[in-house]
Amino acid sequence: MTVNSKHDGPIRRKDALDYHEFPRPGKVEVLPTKPLSTQRDLGLAYSPGVAEPCREIAADPQAAFRYTNRKNLVGIITNGTATLGLGDIGALASKPVMEGKAVLFKVLAGIDAFDIELDERDPDAFARCVKALEPTFGGINLEDIAAPHCFAIEERLRDELDIPVFHDDQHGTAIITGAALINALALQKKEIEEVRVVFAGAGAGAVACARLYESLGVKRDHITMVDIHGVIFEGREIDMDPYKGYFARKTDKRSLDEVMVDADVFVGLAAGGIISREMVASMAERPIIFALANPDPEIAYPEVMAVRDDAIMATGRSDYPNQVNNVLGFPFIFRGALDVGARRITESMKLAAVHALAALAREDVPEVVSEAYDESHIRFGPEYIIPKPFDPRVLLRLSPAIAEAAMAEGVARESVDLPTYVEALERLQGVSKGLMRRLINVAKREPKRIVFPEGTEDKIIKAAQILVDEGIACPILLGPVDVIRARAKELDIDLTGIELLDNERDPRFEELAHVYYRMRQRKGVTIADARDHLRSPEPYAMLLVHEGLADGVVSGVTRPYRESLKPALQIIGVDERQSRVAGMHVVVTRRGVKLFADTTVNIDPDADTLADIAIATADAARLFDLEPRVAMLSYTNFGASRHPDASRVAEATQIVKERRPNLNVDGEMQLEFATEADLRADKFAFSTLEGEANVLIFPDLNASNIGYKLLNQLGGAEVIGPILLGMRRPVNVLQFACSVPSIVHLTVVTCLRAQQLDRERDAR
After folding, report:
1. Domain Malic enzyme NAD-binding, which positions (predicted)?
2. How far is CA 160 from CA 155, 392, 429, in A?
């Protein structure tokens, strides 16, 4: 087992392999952007219609950016000679890394990317292959190519290609540490022209960082580079090349410990553990230390702090302050370059990225970022000199800076209006990005004890492991303990932190049986019946929550929904503030987060029930930081039909308005008018619904259940749920086809509901 960080939890070998293999191998796929359902579509997509854009491109090659995906397509190209911390593993073995990079391009910046692994070690031949691919791509991301070949390859391609070429291992690290250096120097009150910088490592990243630092103002004769053979000095012959030679110094010092004395800045791009406390202690006052080797830095953060509390430090790890992660750079650099059709990525564009990142770290940090990282006080200072890797604002600062610099330098094929461009990037980003991660980090602030009645099931055991690893909840698995242990062993799962409870052998069994008997004795239940019922884990789980011995229940993997719901209603019951329960799904779409209800409980609700469902769902919206905008859906709009089904929705709308006059709600209306505010305003200016609806109340269970499943199965929307609304205590019931992630997500929501109830109780 390897440990990533306190935030990410342990990453186990089997988990990583399963993630890459199931439900289908790999991490990426190709999806069409145009319909292909009719003969006409076929004629447009292929012969004869495809000839028209071909003719246009033949006449004007730049037209390829209009008529093909070239403008939004990046090639991630490697030969696998310097893969992550694995070294020279070859082209084929590096493919998972390149696929991962393609995923980051898409998720973070909306860029399509093809990974290409070239089994070619000769730099000239490699460069020729990449050059031959130029017509395919709008940009080239070179990746994991060993030095010194990577320098020659990039230089040649940059000169010969008319699209941006960017070797991320060089320039990504340089840009991010450059931003960190600017801010660290400001905090340490040092001038960049005066500082002395030591590099451990002389590969692609180190050379690129040193060159960029020189562009930022560090004097070249203030830079000392050390590799495995020692200091790079004038006249050295061992293992030299022109790129190292550029930084050769006239010095009689030959070892790392010698050059560390009185150094202001240390940049490590070498190997873990090579820096001692004594070396750190010998540095100048208020030192800056970037120990970037992964997974283990050249020296650990606690080691530095033990001898130099005046130091500012960054590493490549997320469990220490100031994580240097290239994901802060390459997706957004390419986004800006592609959007203006940049012909290359220039030095001024790189410097623009540096200053944009540095400036962003000095801004006030919004709550959404603090929540995502489970840190309540993120502010500019020694432990926050660069933005967090998944800060959503990076796209909105870095890409416009790149675009502006490209236009100013004259390497852009087209111009953009920057304010309009920022608005477009905001739409690309969408409000749904990172929803689950934000919810998880809220749950982690106060983990709750959640009972799983089906504790012997593989999916539940796997989910429980994730919940413990990420610190989300304290799971209690019900069932025969020996059976659970045996299944966990077969699954290679460590049960540390997971409570196992055999309800039939629980010392509290008899006491709880009498509690249940008193609850149900006037429903025909005898004490013998009570004991018999509680031998089933599901009612026992509900009783644990009813008695405050646990905080919530998640069940339903092995039983029909209504069978699992029955003991919840009998034992925990409906919240006295609600008249009935309802089911809700959170549907995360490209258009944002939508709440669908009722999706699981009320089959054919009357007007009063629909009104209750709408109010309960609107209240639940705030659990997800949504200001509810409620649409009461129908097949018709605002009285156009007098059919009883439509009239029932209209009546429900009126009831909601009477009960909650301040709620943003209207209906009955068709879906397109609920989700298109401009269309609704044009056709029905009288409508009281403001904005695009995010709470969709369906007229019956058929429509809602089919609706969310269609979006999930055919539309690719992420779905969280079903979430049971209206219960006195947190209970949620899964569905047969649930996956391990869906169990985890529903448990997160159960924890949030438990936290919410605690706050309400404390306020009373």
Report:
1. 170-407
2. 9, 35, 34
Question: What contacts 24+ positions apart, CB below 8 Å, involve 10-19?
Answer: 10/469, 12/492, 14/492
Establish how many alpha carbons lie within 13 A of residue 431's alpha carbon, considering only the half-sphere containing its beta carbon. Answer: 11
Burial (CB count <10 Å: 0-12, 13-18, 19+), residue 449: middle
Share above pLDDT 70 across residues of the chain, in percent, rounded to a whole number: 96
The span from the CA of 337 to the CA of 412, in Å, is 8
Q: What is the 3-state secondary structure (H, E, C) of 25-50?
A: CCCCCCCCCCCCCCHHHHHHHCCCCC
Show the tokens assigned to 165. Answer: 């070429």
Confidence grade of residue 374 (pLDDT, cut at 50, 70, 90): low
Nearest to 202 by CA among 154, 172, 242, 166: 242
Q: Write the secondary structure of 598-622 as one string of H (helix), E (strand) and C (coil).
A: CCCCCCCCCHHHHHHHHHHHHHHHH
The tokens for 704 are: 């809602």
DSSP state of 231: E
- The span from the CA of 290 to the CA of 299, in Å, is 9
Q: Scan for tokens 């840009």, then name that residue.
A: 175
Site of tokens 């609600």:
578
Tokens of 752: 């949030």
CA distance 558 to 572: 20
| Inter-residue contact 597 to 725 (CB < 8 Å) | yes
Give the DSSP per-residue string, 268-308.
E-S-TT---HHHHHTSPSS-EEEE--SSS-SS-HHHHHHH-
Start-end of H helices in 189-264: 204-216, 242-245, 256-260
- Give me the active site residues, please: 46, 101
CB neighbours of residue 44 within 10 Å: 16
Q: Percentage of residues in the chain with pLDDT exceeding 90?
A: 66
**Full-model pTM:** 0.73
Residue 434: predicted pLDDT: 64
DSSP annotation of 572 reads I
**Which of 147, 149, 144 minimizes the C-alpha distance to 126?**
149
CB under 8 Å to 694, separation ≥6 — which residues? 592, 593, 594, 595, 621, 626, 628, 629
Question: Contact at 8 Å (CB) between 694 and 586?
Answer: no
Calculate the average pLDDT of the chain.
90
Look at residue 7 and tell me whether its pLDDT is greater than 50: no
Phi then psi for 307, rounded to 5 degrees?
-115, -20
